[in-house]
Specification:
The protein is an alpha+beta fold. Helix content is about 35%, strand content about 15%. The chain has 14 helices and 12 strands. A hairpin with a 3-residue loop joins strand 11 (about 405-415) and strand 12. The longest helix is centred in the middle third of the chain and has 20 residues, at about 190-210. About 50% of the residues are buried.
């Protein structure tokens, strides 16, 4: 068997992330993804270029988005010979896409690829209930006036009430925020700890913008020039005024709008390639995507909806014979501050390591100064399927510009799953 090739991260491009119902209220998944891919095309002179595969997805999508990756690739100006594949693993979508594409590059199936994701809450699909949907289907199949009238027999106006999109887990009936409240209680995570982590995320993100870190990563779109959720002027005092968002009745709720990610619209993309492909086109290699892992847990049985990344990271480090001491930067997706804090606490806990991770010795402590040093989702926002690509692109540039050697990415997802990756700086 031929030797595996290195998977180069050439670079990334994304549109600014915008809080739902603000800057992209009139946009959809296709236009946002096309703009993010278009940013890559312009940045790396890829117009008309045949890319081995574009793999992208959206968590919230209309039926019209059935061929989203392919259509966005064409809109962005890539060669018509570039295939597009839709994928979806909730919030881990674009990182999982990068891992799948990286494997194809490593074995020589393709030489180049783009991993991407997009999501819009502002343009969420709004559907009718089952009863009216069945009526509509029967109406579309009706041929005679009698059959058309029959389709509406027994109709009442209540059937026209739309069914709003929901983030409730089908197996528990609880939202992600409600699940995270349970995790906060299980791991004894205080409101003050959560607010402090959220504040640090905003401060780090604001500093990254001030330093110009995002200047070549973010492509203006639809009049939006930068992420509109980053709050440089926030404070612990302001955060303390926020009321619980998911547990409003018990008096013990700790998750608020300040320490939880907002509903967000946006899209992001990352260009991957073999070293030879990048070199032949005079393109940079910022870093290498070296390893990945996806895992799941029994969240319905009480293991914590957003705790699966603890398993993914543990298994990935076991495969690579690495420890936390070998990692210079940690990029941990911040769905909620409580989720990050619970994850960090679990990695330190001897019982959790022994029972859940199968480790005799805990993975251990992580220096806070190595975690999300340029902010993360609490500040930038979280368009579900786009977050992995945002983090991967940021991580590659962070390694290239800081001189650090190795970074670890951890992304939790709905459904009790987690995706992790290792990224190493190019020499």
């Amino acid at each position: 068997m031929a030797e595996l090739r290195k998977v180069a991260i050439v670079g990334s491009a994304r549109i600014p992330f915008a809080r739902a119902y603000t800057g992209y209220a009139e946009e959809g998944n296709l236009t946002m993804l096309g703009a993010a891919l278009g940013g890559l095309v312009e940045k790396y002179n890829l117009r008309g270029e045949h890319i081995g595969e574009v793999m992208a997805g959206a968590v919230l999508s209309h039926s019209r988005d059935f061929n989203l990756a392919r259509e966005a690739s064409l809109d962005a100006g890539l060669s018509p010979r570039t295939p597009g594949t839709n994928v979806q693993i909730a919030c881990g979508t674009s990182l999982q896409a990068a891992l799948a594409l990286g494997a194809k590059i490593a074995i020589g199936e393709i030489d180049s690829a783009i991993a991407a994701g997009t999501d819009t809450v502002s343009d969420s699909p709004v559907v009718f209930g089952d009863k009216f949907q069945h009526r509509a289907i029967n109406l579309s199949r009706a041929r005679t006036t009698g059959e058309k009238l029959k389709a509406f027999k027994g109709f009442n106006l209540g059937e026209l009430t739309p069914v709003a999109p929901s983030t409730q887990e089908p197996r528990t009936g609880l939202s992600m925020g409600q699940h995270c409240e349970l995790m906060a209680r299980q791991w004894d995570i205080s409101r003050e700890e959560q607010d402090a982590l959220a504040l640090r995320s905003h401060q780090n993100a604001a500093r990254a913008y001030d330093e110009g870190f995002h200047d070549d990563l973010v492509v203006p779109f639809a009049g939006v020039l930068k992420d509109n959720n980053v709050r440089a002027d926030t404070s612990l005092e302001k955060m303390a005024t926020m009321k619980p968002a998911f547990d409003k009745q018990s008096g013990h709720g700790t998750l608020t709008a300040a320490n939880s990610t907002p509903l967000t619209d946006g899209a992001a993309s990352v260009l991957l390639a073999s070293e030879d492909w990048a070199r032949a086109r005079g393109l940079p290699v910022l870093a290498y995507l070296t390893l990945g892992q996806v895992a799941a847990n029994d969240f319905a049985g009480g293991e914590g909806l957003l705790m699966a990344p603890t398993i993914a990271v543990s298994e990935m480090l076991r495969r690579s014979n690495l420890t936390f001491a070998d990692i210079d930067l940690f990029e941990i997706h911040e769905a909620f501050a409580a989720q990050v804090l619970a994850t960090l606490k679990a990695w330190r806990d001897p019982d959790y390591n022994r029972v859940t991770l199968g480790r005799d010795t805990p993975l251990g402590e992580i220096d806070p100064d190595r975690i999300n040093v340029r902010g993360s989702s609490l500040a930038y926002g979280h368009p579900f399927a786009a977050t992995g690509a945002r983090i991967l692109g940021l991580t590659a540039k962070s390694l290239a510009t800081s001189g650090k050697q190795r970074a670890l990415i951890s992304v939790c997802t709905a459904g009790g799953m987690g995706v992790a990756a290792l990224v190493e700086r190019a020499a």
